[in-house]
Design a protein that fits this description.
Order of helices and strands of chain A: HHHHHHHHHHHHHHHHHHH
Strand content of chain B: 25-35%
Radius of gyration of chain B: 16 Å
Number of strands of chain A: 0
Largest sheet of chain B: 4 strands, antiparallel
CATH architecture of chain B: 2-Layer Sandwich
Structural class of chain B: alpha+beta
Oligomer: heterodimer
Largest interface: A-B, 19 and 12 residues
Number of domains of chain A: 4
Distance between the termini of chain B: 16 Å
Strand order of the largest sheet of chain B: 2-5-1-6
Number of strands of chain B: 6
CATH class of chain B: Alpha Beta
CATH topology of chain B: Alpha-Beta Plaits
Number of helices of chain A: 19
Structural class of chain A: mainly alpha
Shape of chain B: flat
CATH superfamily of chain B: Dimeric alpha+beta barrel
Helix content of chain B: 10-25%
Chain lengths: 410, 113
């Protein structure tokens, strides 16, 4: 890798590790100091590497500089050191020398502990995702703004507020006890699930950024799988879901960046390796006797990786949607269930059911009815698609619906 | 929206002996019906099935094996759904697959304590 690309790359992979390790050492109250030291380290790298060329081992160089900067900071801020030393249990020796452990193990442990801090329910979910992107994934404010389709300033404010909240609540950066894990894990999984969805379904046109979000969500979920304490069935189910979904990442976007609907995708572009990984984690998820919504969604995603369209496939999908809706209602699940119902039980029954779910302000609802009435009552189909067109917000949605209306009129 | 209890009753003696395929088809009918209620966001609690045998305790420590000697229909299960009024709840109950096999649904508004 050439130097101009190396620093942004290392920033993405190493910044978060340095911040997390330092922050775990200092405590959440000093999060900004950890961030400042990590930023200074990268500033030094971009200045020195440009002048003197790359060091033999850039990552080791970064860690050494981060350690030295931390120690310098302590020397010049004895008050800080006294405060931190009180909080850092094992450094309270006579020399007051702080040991900074940037070993792979401590990095992973720190990231895992930080995940529970970032996903703490004291912050709203959107802020949790922002914090995760900033602290656990090393995303810059402009990248986070790009993912949320908002401006840098509001993301900056959102992150500041969220960090302030963590300080106020004095959230400890530690892996929760086994008893606490069961209580806190659902919130962590929900944030990772939403982080993944932000990438998978985001309206942002930046395909690279969107894929990065998905990969980061998968990396963090994998951290949970790797740790014995957090390697729970629901975690494996969530990772399986992510694997199945991302197996279609390249097939669902065409060369112009436009979305390709599932039924029009070239199945040859589905990533079979990710499908296999998904099946592995789904199998791992099948221990225990609780079925989470991630199990059901992973099951649905797994059935979607079957290329042939058969009544059995859609019957299986329908039953999984039934169970999913029984656990937790969502409009999207209700719409998808109705689609599966049409495929499994026929369009007539699905039309009756669609009229009952009554999501009239949702463009997808009218698109669904447009599809259901196609070849049964085309005039009604066109009426629904026209309503869908009025309600649709993004240009790509409007284009897809417009094409359907044209086809029906021909 | 109010909560309504559905009490599913059936006459065990009248139930035909079902083949595995018929039992599977029946499970599908129930799941599609409950799924339909859930898709309308009107399911409060899917409830449970009840084991057919039971005991009934009466004053003076009189214990009998279930209420079956007096009533032909036994309670097979229950669910709790949401509806605006008893008429809407009854309308929803019309889809119950138990009705196809001579069963009944009792619809009762829950008077929350």
């Amino acid at each position: 890798m050439q130097q101009p690309e190396l620093i942004p790359h290392l920033f993405r992979t190493e910044y978060r590790k340095i911040v997390t390790v330092l922050c775990k050492l200092f405590g959440i109250a000093h999060l900004e100091i950890a961030e400042d030291i990590a930023s200074d380290t990268f500033l030094a790298a971009s200045e020195l590497w440009g002048l003197k060329g790359l060091p033999p081992n850039p990552v080791a160089w970064l860690y050494t500089v981060a350690k030295n900067k931390s120690k310098d900071y302590f020397k010049h801020n004895s008050i800080f050191l006294q405060k931190v030393a009180k909080e850092v249990s094992y450094t309270a020796d006579s020399s007051m020398e702080i040991e900074i452990d940037l070993s792979a193990k401590n990095i992973n442990d720190s990231q895992l502990a930080m995940m529970f801090v970032v996903c703490h329910p004291c912050n709203p979910v959107e802020a949790q995702i922002g914090l995760a992107l900033s602290l656990l994934c090393g995303f810059g404010t402009d990248e986070i703004a790009g993912a949320f389709l908002t401006n840098k300033e509001s993301i900056y404010k959102r992150l500041q507020r969220a960090k302030q909240k963590l300080r106020e609540e004095k959230i400890a950066i530690e892996q929760p006890s086994p008893a606490k894990i069961d209580e806190r894990l659902p919130a962590v999984l929900m944030t990772l699930y939403l982080l993944f969805n932000e990438g998978y379904y985001s309206a942002s046109n930046d395909a690279v950024l969107r894929k990065d979000l998905c990969l980061e969500a998968m990396r963090l979920t994998y951290l949970l799988v790797e740790n014995e304490q957090t390697n729970k069935p629901a975690v494996n189910a969530l990772l399986a879901l992510m694997c199945f979904q991302s197996s279609r990442f390249d097939a669902r976007i065409d060369a112009q960046g436009e979305l390709i609907l599932y039924e029009d995708q070239d199945a040859k572009l589905w990533d079979s390796e990710l499908v296999e990984q998904g099946k592995y984690f789904l199998n791992e998820a099948s221990s225990g006797n609780t079925i989470s919504k991630y199990h059901l969604e992973a099951g649905i995603a797994c059935m979607h990786t079957m290329q042939e369209d058969s009544p059995e496939k859609w019957e299986g999908i329908l039953q999984l949607y039934n169970q999913l809706l029984i656990i937790e209602y969502s409009p999207v699940a209700a719409l998808n269930r109705t689609y599966a119902l049409a495929k499994a039980n026929g369009k007539e029954e699905a039309i009756t059911e669609a009229e009952k779910i009554n999501l009239t302000s949702n463009h997808l609802y009218h698109s669904l009815l447009g599809w259901l009435y196609t070849n049964i009552d085309n005039a009604k189909a066109i009426l629904h698609l026209q309503t869908a067109l009025q309600l649709a917000k993004t240009p790509s949605d409007k284009k897809l619906i417009g094409e359907k209306i044209r086809k029906l009129r021909d | 929206m109010k909560d309504f209890l559905f009490v599913f009753r059936m006459d065990e003696s009248k139930m035909p002996k079902a083949s595995p395929e018929e039992m599977q088809a029946n499970t599908k009918r129930w799941m599609d019906w409950i799924g339909s209620i859930a898709a309308q966001n009107k399911l409060t609690d899917r409830g449970n099935r009840l084991v057919p045998s039971g005991k009934v305790l009466k004053p003076n420590n009189v214990i009998t094996d279930g209420p079956y000697t007096e009533i032909k229909e036994t309670i097979g299960g229950y669910s709790i759904i949401k509806a605006d009024d008893i008429d809407e709840a009854t309308e929803i109950a019309k889809g119950c697959p138990g009705l196809l096999f001579g069963g009944s649904v009792e619809v009762r508004e829950i008077n929350a304590m």
